[in-house]
Amino acid sequence: MNYQIFAPADCTATIALPTSKSISNRALIINALCNNAIPVENLSSCDDTRVMRQAFTGNDRTIDIHGAGTAMRFLTAYYAQVEGSRHTLTGSERMKQRPIKILVEALRALGADIDYTSREGFPPLDICGRQLTGGELTLPGDVSSQYISALLMIAPRMRDGLTLTLTGEIVSTPYIEMTLGMMAHYGIEAQRTGHTLRVSAGSYTPTPFSVEPDWSAASYWYEIAALSPTGSVVLPGLTPKSLQGDARIAQLFEPLGIETLFSSDGAKLIKSDIHTTEYRCDLSEQPDLAQTLVVACCLLGIPFHFTGLQTLRIKETDRIAALCNELIKLGYRLLSSDNSLTWNGETVEPEAHPVIRTYDDHRMAMAFAPASFRFPGIEIADTAVVDKSYPDYWTDLTRAGFTLFPTQKGDTTL
User: Fold this and answer.
1) Per the domain annotation, does 208 fall within a domain?
2) Cα–Cα distance for residue pair 82/48, rounded to 1 Å
3) Alpha-carbon distance values, 332 to 168, 296, 302, 327, 399 (Å)
4) Catalytic residues
5) Rounded CA separation 397/411 (Å)
6) Domain assignment of residue 8, yes or no
7) CATH assignment at residue 265
8) Are residues 212 and 19 in contact, defined by beta-carbon separation less than 8 angstroms?
9) Which of 142, 335, 367, 376 could form a disulfide with 342 if both were Cys (CB 3.0 to 4.6 A apart)?
10) Residue 329 Rama label (left phi>0; alpha psi -120 to 50; beta)
11) How many CA within 13 A on the CB side of residue 252?
């Protein structure tokens, strides 16, 4: 289904955000390693977390994780250490194009029995669980942080534990810190020496845990607050003391005219008088915020140069290419490289009735919907993609005063 979207004259709203899928999926893995002794509270309802839960509750040997990259990486490592088990992990056609060789080779070096069922280096995977020996392992620091987190979480189950050394530039560090923080919550502390992490063999301690609201989801409301002529947005439950690196969005939107006021009730986003004339930023630690910031800067007329985007090429889609393809429809010509996006202010004639492709990528849909402030009636294609992380996104937009018109015959206005 497509939606044609019209923004309100201004946006004043209180929005209950979904809980974090990044935290939820880590909590599910660690809780499984605790034999699910104490259920995790406040789990995300998104598709990525749903497929993780189904993997643990179902009895099928073949597990289809659809487009959930986190689930593919985490479950590959998890099932590799479940002695006596055998599972096949598969997914969507896009998932079968996303490389996983680095993780598979790392697990094999630690004693895992994993085979590719089709193309070398890509899912589907056939996994025979066994006791992993563990030991020493070296990985480049610029690989997906999900590979690193997957290995760290199962490290206590390895016979010799795991000594993991990361070389070169380390990207997405906050996600690694999130993993280590959650492991510590469950009683496993990693020892650090420079870029080396040491996790000894041991057992997690079953502990109550509740998932916090999702800062990545909050980013779209920062974009809405920045584009809305007036108004404010309240996001209950958000705290600056978060496990999530994407909490940095509060600082990243300050140059775009949004101030965050924290209280015991959460975060309130209000307009400020600060407006930068050019935005330059390294997003290597918050790559999931790139689409929000790129679209927001274009719509605000602020030239930018964002770097640290190398992991965007292997996400749900090639996000760098997708942003270039869709923003030209709105009249913004971007320049790209393998790890950067630049807009120097160059514009072309926008399309009269732009339809934004989402490329089976939830963040494309959510980042472009606020463009309705500048392009009334902009159409977002395949809107169900938001179920991956924020199932209630469209409902929350209507609560905030947006009007959504489904373009398929027989549907009604939301």
Assistant:
1) no
2) 22
3) 34, 12, 11, 5, 30
4) 288
5) 18
6) yes
7) 3.65.10.10
8) yes
9) 335
10) alpha
11) 30
